[in-house]
Each structure stands twice: as C-alpha cells, then as structure tokens.
Write a structure and sequence with these properties.
Blueprint (H helix, E strand, L loop, with lengths): L7 H8 L3 H5 L8 H13 L5 H10 L6 H10 L29 E10 L5 E9 L4 E8 L4 H15 L4 E4 L8 H10 L2 E4 L9 H15 L7 H17 L17 H15 L10 H9 L1
Parallel strand pairs: 1-4, 4-5
Antiparallel strand pairs: 1-2, 2-3
C-alpha cells in the first residue's frame, strides 16, 4: 500500500479479500496446562490411550476440545506402541484324514501348567495319528527348538522317520533351526492355520485327556514328581486304557498292536541289544535319556 500509495480499502478490494481477514492476527494458544496434565496422566496410567485420557479430563471438569487434546497428545508422542504381529507364511487348510499306517503322521503340541510354588512348566506332547499312541511327553520349565529336535531325534531312532509332523505356529515350531532339521530328515512340517486348533484335533483331544487326568488332578511340588506321574500315566494310556477312536479297544488289542511291540523291540535293540530285551522297560530308557 505504501509502494502504490493505496488505501487499505482499495488494496483489499483489488485483491478480493475482506478487511477483517487483512487485519486478523493469529493468537498463539497456550497448551502448557494440557501438556502438564497429559504428562502426569501418562505417568500414572501408562496404558491409557488418547480417548480414555480425553474422557478422564472431561470428567475432571476441563472444557478443552477433544481435537485440541489429541493434537497435544500426538505432539508429545504418547501414542501406545502396538506389538506387531508375526508374519507367517500362508497356511493351507488340510483335511484331517486318518493315516493308513503308523509312522505316517505325527502330531505335536505344547501345554503349560504350574507347580504348587507358582513356578510354570511346559509339556511337549507327541502323538501318532494312526493309532493315537502317545509317543512322548517331555516336561520342563523351558522347551526351546533345540530341545524339541533332541526329543524328535530319539523318537526317530525308536520309530523311524514319519512322513509328516502336524503342529501349530508356536515360536519353537516355526524356527529356522527346526525347518532345517526337518529338511535334512526329509520330514514335512505340516503347520496348521493360525487360530484353527481343530486342524490338529488328534493332539488337542489327547491334550484334553492329559489335562483332566493329570494336570488338573494333581498338585505338583517339583518337576520330578510331574515326570514320574506322567510317565506312569503314559504307560497306562498306551497299554490298558480303552480308546474311543479304536472302538473301545486298547492299543495292544487294536490291529495296530504289532507296531507298538516292534517299537519296544527297536528301543531295546538300539539301547542295549536284543539279548536284554525282557529286562529293560521303556520307562527306564526314557529316564536314562533324560539323565
């Protein structure tokens, strides 16, 4: 206006803006009080998100606009951090068919419980899908991927190599180490779809029985007690317990019984030789391996 010697009214008319807009001066908002309240609230309630903080401040009598609170909240970078989900390869659904013979398909799963002192422990359950024979139950406070491989290596000596092992997507079961081991042994790891435990129904049904008859029935004081009771129950499960899937027969009465006897013979032959077959039990061999 000074350069062209124009009045304010003439300049605003030339630029097609109102004189009110020309004279407007932005007022800087003081967000100091909001900042202090949000910081104090975030320190007391670290898991509260923005919406909950807005509701809390409103209930305390503050009349701040929710958009203004959210703006300050973001400037302070108080957003809750979300744990990213694991990216898994695409899992295809497979029909849960009954294998035609033993050692064709095994199922594997983990369970957890706690001792009387509150210390947590886990179990690794392995089942033959053909005749529902419980091959192994490993008990310890931690069972990483290397421990899983050790157990499977022993079972391969006992039973031979299965065509596939069905399992879920736990961290131990999707490890690169286990995948490399399975590739070396030419075993297919059949991972089920996430959130679909029914696709591993054989071991899930076994887990229910093990939970009801052992884990929920006893109050354990130490891991040795868990292992002893589990081992005794496992022997009964595989020898005298009738199975609905076998039409009320035990494993020894079913057509798959010879496989179980062959397994015991192989265990004894590999461990101490065929001459000592009658004097050694599966239980003692497992105890020797654990020790």
């Amino acid at each position: 206006m000074q350069t062209y010697e124009m009045s304010e009214r003439q300049a605003c008319r030339l630029l097609s803006i109102s004189r009110t807009i020309f004279r407007y001066a932005a007022k800087l908002t003081d967000d100091h009080e909001i900042t202090q309240e949000l910081l104090r609230l975030a320190e007391r309630q670290p898991r509260w998100g923005c919406s909950k903080m807005v509701d809390y401040l409103k209930n305390q009598g503050y009349d701040w606009n929710h958009k203004r609170i959210r703006r300050v909240y973001r400037e302070l970078k108080l957003n809750l951090r979300r744990k990213p989900k694991k990216r898994l390869p695409a899992r295809t659904a497979r029909a849960l068919a009954v294998p035609e013979q033993s050692n064709q398909s095994w199922s594997l799963d983990f369970m957890s419980d706690s001792l009387s002192n509150g210390r947590a422990f886990r179990t690794l359950n392995i089942l033959d899908d053909y005749n529902r024979e419980a091959l192994w139950i490993e008990v310890d406070t931690s069972i990483p991927a290397e421990r899983v491989i050790r157990v499977l290596e022993v079972l391969l000596l006992w039973r031979g190599t299965p065509h596939q092992i069905r399992m879920d997507n736990g961290p131990e079961l999707i490890s690169q180490r286990l995948a490399e081991w399975a590739q070396e042994r030419h075993i297919e790891l059949a991972h089920i779809q996430p959130g679909k435990p029914a696709q591993n129904a054989y071991i899930e049904r076994f887990n229910r029985t093990f939970r009801e008859e052992i884990l929920d029935a006893y109050l354990f004081d130490d891991l040795q007690e868990v292992r002893a009771i589990t081992e005794h129950w496992l022997q009964e499960y595989n020898t005298i317990r009738p199975h609905e899937a076998l039409r009320g027969l035990t494993l020894h009465q079913s057509p798959s019984a010879p496989a179980s006897h062959n397994v015991q013979n192989r265990i004894h032959d590999l461990a101490i030789g065929p001459s000592s077959r009658s004097s050694t039990s599966t239980h003692s061999l497992r105890q020797e391996w654990r020790n």
